[in-house]
Amino acid sequence: MIERPEYQRRLQTKPCWWWSGVETLNFSEQTSFRQLLAMLPAKQSSDDQILAFLIDLRARFQRWLHQDEFGPTRRQQTAALRALKKSIHTLQQRLAKGAPSQRETLDAVLRSGGDCSAATLERIYEAASDLERDLRISDESNRKIDRAAKIKACAETTMAQGQSLDTNADGEMFPIAIQHEFDPLQPCAPDFSLADAEQWLNTYCNVVDQTLYELNERGGAEERVSLKLSVEQLCEFWQHETGRPVSAHGISNLEYTQRTETEAGRFVTAAVEAMLPAPAWFDEHSGFSGPVRAMTFLPSRHANRARQILVIMRGFVKRGQR
Question: Which of 6, 8, 54, 171 is paired with 126 by a 20 to 30 Å CA distance?
Fold first, then answer.
């Protein structure tokens, strides 16, 4: 009873097929950056060099936002991976079914080759398609024809889902695939058999399953990756330009303000505000603005961002003191 709402939410979550984290960098200058120059108590670089750094960081910050906070959530990524795992499992079942003679026929078709550059799923799809055609020509039973057609359909679905994973989910799966020495696009060997296909699908299923496990193990709130990357780079920039260490606290007149009350903190906070995308950008990404981690970056959430920046800067200072 307690877990049912969570299970229902998982069922309602839809994958973001074909979503890509790639976005063009926008290096257009903003006049608000010039105000930041006056906030630096000392400078090692020229004003033009500092502005160039800030403009470059702003461009990357906005691309990070697009890729992470305003991209598919962990729940959406796992929904896509669960769908892919289900398709792989269904294909495994389809291949395992049938009389020994039917499996032998499919094995022979697979071994007969075709396109030597074809990947495994493509090879299975082509073999099932050829088998279905031959069975129709030979006027075989509808049951045999239907089995070949179902294998073809399952291979096509699995191939399409694997190719249309969002780039974040695909990136999560990549290092695990390397561990298993698995390449979903590796061409088949000339003597590729049904046993090879089943072994390959088993490895594919294990890679997807381990990726799902690791995503689910993280749990909790998703980190504001873009904010952390930007704040830490700005902290390093402050230290390099001013020659002063970064300090971070939220106390002013003996009161806790929930924002950084140091020179470095005020500079970093102002820089982050200047790097936020234009309102039109948020309109374009409105479909991903619901999660808490994305709402942190909405123009009206100044106080929320300030609290997050304080936490990140405290962590930066603490690591530097070790």
Answer: 171
65 lies in the same domain as 198 = no
- DSSP E strand stretches across 148-276: 251-252, 255-256
**What long-range pairs does 54-60 form, CB within 8 A, spacing at least 24?**
54/271, 54/274, 54/275, 55/27, 55/28, 55/29, 55/30, 56/27, 57/230, 57/233, 57/234, 57/275, 58/26, 58/30, 58/33, 58/274, 58/275, 59/25, 59/26, 59/27, 60/25
- Which of residues 218, 239, 259 is at a domain's end? 218
Most confident of the following: 21-30, 221-230, 271-280, 289-298:
271-280
pLDDT in tens, 52-68: 999 999 999 999 999 99
| Beta carbons of 16 and 72 less than 8 angstroms apart | yes
In this predicted model, what pLDDT tens digit does every residue of 104-154 receive, in sequence order? 999 999 998 766 678 999 999 999 999 999 999 998 889 999 999 999 999
pLDDT of the residue at 115 = 67
Same domain, 78 and 182: yes
On whether both 39 and 172 belong to a single domain, the answer is no
Domain count, the chain: 2
- The reply to whether 104 and 167 lie within a common domain is yes
Percent of the chain with pLDDT over 90: 76
Considering the domain architecture, whether residues 36 and 118 belong to the same structural domain is answered as no
Instruction: Compute the half-sphere exposure of residue 149: CA atoms within 13 Å on the CB side of its CA.
Output: 9
Instruction: Please report whether residue 9 resides in a domain.
Output: no
Is the domain of 97 the same as that of 197? yes
Lowest-confidence region among 38-42, 115-119, 125-129, 250-254 = 115-119
CA distance 66 to 281: 10
Q: Is 119 helix (H, G, I), strand (E, B) or coil?
A: strand
